[in-house]
Amino acid sequence: MISVTSLMESLVAVRTKRCQSLLQLSQKQWSACLLQFEQLQQQLCWSETTHRADVHPVMREFGIFSGYRHTGRGWGYYLRSAFRLHNETLNWLSHALGSLLIIGLGAVLTLRLPATADPVDVRLAWLFCLTSALMHTVSALAHLMHNHSELSHCLVFFADNAAVGLASYVINLLGVAFFSSHSYYSFIGPATMPTLVFGTICMSSGFSLALAAYRRRYNPATSLLMFGPSSCFLFFGLAPVIERRLLSPDEPEMLGMTHYYLFFLAILCYATCFPECLWPGRFDLLLHSHQLFHCLATASHCMLLSSVFSLISDDSPHLFSKRSSEWVSMETACRGLGVAFVFSVCIVALLAKAFRYDTSFSSRASTCCKAN
């Protein structure tokens, strides 16, 4: 007689073989889908693009091998590329559409506000709309024009880093002004403006210094400069949201927390270079990590804006207008934003002048293009 143990072992073996065969079949199907997706991208790709070996090293991205625009061409070439498919098309379009989406969403939500809404809260919400739209606009121009040379690449992304710092200033201001509990608010209130200004300067300077000094060479120093100040600054705005969530676990899910979920997911995609880290060369033009980062970041800004307008509509006790007299006024917030902007621009200008940039590569590229 066949024992129960041997019968179970035979059943497990048969099931294991079936699972392995199904896994192999799914892997083959997935590989075939990726290959078809890559071929589709190559068919749609703009004819005036090149391989990564033909562009300046500062413009090469991990796991992306084709679809790069030439270095050293005239500015008209990069303007013509706006609506042609290459590896920066969705980058600049996602930012441009994100800017319009933020402004449009802010306008719609403002029209839906009740008549009792305090104008001070609405002005602060629109301060976020404007700084976020500015950041997306500058980023769109940066992704559209940066391939001209190493100098233009660094300059446009220096400006982009300054705009990111300003948007982060207002995001953290919203976190403290709208989401903190009374005890947390009373504790952190007096230090809010100096912390916001200092954090904005450190964040934009860290990004720009990492770009200027290491030219996209990923190493511990680059990661420290990019993610060190930005993580500390991000936690300053996240802390009151977490504290309010812990104190009120029965409170319905806040869109403000959803903002951070989406933003952390965006950072994870960007930092890990997913999905091109797993399938190099298969996502050169569409759905690579940089594009996913932009889309998720835009969605996170929309969630935060919706959350703020929801609090304004519900006349929440966590409103800026009900606390502004305690520690900061709208004028002080705008003044702090101006100080952070001036210092960020000055530091960016010093970095732009302090480092040398390779102009010979663009000349070589132009010469090769003319020769061909």
Automatic annotation (TrEMBL):
Zn(2+) binds at residues 143, 290, 294. InterPro entries: AdipoR/HlyIII-related. It is found in: Membrane. GO terms for cellular component: membrane. This is Uncharacterized protein. Keywords: Membrane, Metal-binding, Transmembrane, Transmembrane helix, Zinc. The keyword Metal-binding applies. The chain crosses the membrane at residues 90-111, 123-142, 154-179, 191-214, 221-239, 259-279, 291-312, 332-352. It comes from the Eukaryota. It is a multi-pass membrane protein. Belongs to the ADIPOR family. One of its GO terms (molecular function) is signaling receptor activity.
